[in-house]
Amino acid sequence: MTTLSRWMRATVLTGVAVIGLASCSMNVDNPSVIDAGKFNPNNDGTTLALSAQTNFYIAFQSVAMFGGLISEEVWTGAVRLQTNRLAARNFVGTDDINADFFAPLSLAIASNENAVSVLAKGANASTDLNLATAAMNLGFSLDVMAETMCSGVIQGGPELTDTQLLDTAVTAFTQAITVATAAGPAGAAIVNASNVGLARAYLQMGDFANAAATAALVPPDFVINVVTSANVSTQGVLGNTYHFNSLQGQIIAPQLYRIGDPRMPIDSTTPCATLNQLPCVIQAKYTSYGDPIRLGSGLEAQYIQAEAELHGSGATSNALALIAARRAAGAEPAYSGGTDTLSVISELLNQRARDFWMEGKKLGDIRRNPSVPLTAVLADPAGAPFYTTSGGGTFGTNLCAPIPPEETNANPNF
User: Fold this and answer.
1) Is the dihedral of CA 360, 133, 185, 291 positive or negative?
2) Where in the sequence is the domain holding 102, given as residue range(s)?
3) Comparing 112 with 85, which gets the higher pLDDT?
4) b/e string for 311-322 if b means 16 or more Cβ within 10 A?
5) Single pTM value for the model
6) Which one is predicted more confidently, 91 or 292?
7) Phi and psi at residue 252, to the nearest 5°
């Protein structure tokens, strides 16, 4: 039996990456284990922040890929009933919601929140880049939970709405920006990354003025990546998960992603492990275990600003300019559609789906824009919604993952 899952394991004090400049490559060669009784936030903060960051990277990859099934960025080539239900948006509590979404996100949030709490007590906390890193990754973890889950929980607390999760993300990103700014030039990458995440949170919660203003602060050429590992000892956990599952023939490029746009490269020649004898076309955006996955960028900030202005004031100029630039990047003809708000935002999301294919953004995009037809943002028509069933079966409409019974059964707040 094939399955789309791979075993995800992380420990709280195992590190892989740390913020750097330029394209934000994040690497540490010799992570270590800290004796909790001897922990010193000034001496051991790097290991703590890096291990919490690793938990976020693992969670991000899992949620981005499985959320891609819900948003139809990818189709499943697996034969597991649980995976097929997920791809058909028919959620059953006993399925893989906990393993695919909630558990890794909960670990990422808890470890980064705990790191923030401990590092904030250090003597140099006001300029500690380890504290800023943990606060930034806490913010991104909360962003992803709010965009993916129907509601959330933080460390066994009460059920939180997406807006409450995003409010907490705003606080985390604000702390990261404050500390990294105080640290001077060495904190510039964290400031830019946190501004992308902060603008993303504002946009998702409908605070369009702050979303546009924050996004405008990010340099156009800025990029921050989730770092992956090609090391044979870690690639099963930290290797690029899209590449991993493409090799297994378990994720398939949907029809509308096979349209010759260079931003969405595909491979129709590699044999796949599916059992239904349908043609298999896989993604070719990620071709090695070590390929990084973009987490945030100046390009995303431009999309956020343009969308926020459309929602907030109906202003279309930035959106139309961005659409023109991105259609040119995709070798598409000039936009000739309507200039009303719905038409422009539909085309903006169409281009955004192309630019950020398999980068964990599309599910949030369609959830905050329910008036935009899914077919306008590269979702195949109902009748061929996922791969192994050949379009058969009932296709659900739920665009978020519910809190799983592993949490509701153990949490006294439920």
Assistant:
1) negative
2) 36-379
3) 112
4) bbeebbebbbeb
5) 0.90
6) 292
7) -120, 140
